[in-house]
Amino acid sequence: VSVSRPTPAPSGVEAAWVDGLEAASVKVLDRGLHYGDGLFETIACPHARPRLLELHLERLLAGCERLGIRGVSRPQLEAEIERAAAVPGLLKLILTRGSATARGYAPHGDETATRVLLRYPWPADDLDAGRDGVSVRIAALRLGENPALAGLKHLNRLEQVLARAEPHSESTSEALLFSSSGALISGTMTNVFLVEKGVLSTPRVDLCGVAGVMRRIVLREAARARLASGEALLAREHLERAEEVFLTNARIGIWPVRAIGQRVLAVGPVTRELQRLIAPLLQEGTLG
Amino acid sequence: VSVSRPTPAPSGVEAAWVDGLEAASVKVLDRGLHYGDGLFETIACPHARPRLLELHLERLLAGCERLGIRGVSRPQLEAEIERAAAVPGLLKLILTRGSATARGYAPHGDETATRVLLRYPWPADDLDAGRDGVSVRIAALRLGENPALAGLKHLNRLEQVLARAEPHSESTSEALLFSSSGALISGTMTNVFLVEKGVLSTPRVDLCGVAGVMRRIVLREAARARLASGEALLAREHLERAEEVFLTNARIGIWPVRAIGQRVLAVGPVTRELQRLIAPLLQEGTLG
Question: DSSP label at A11?
Answer without folding.
Answer: T
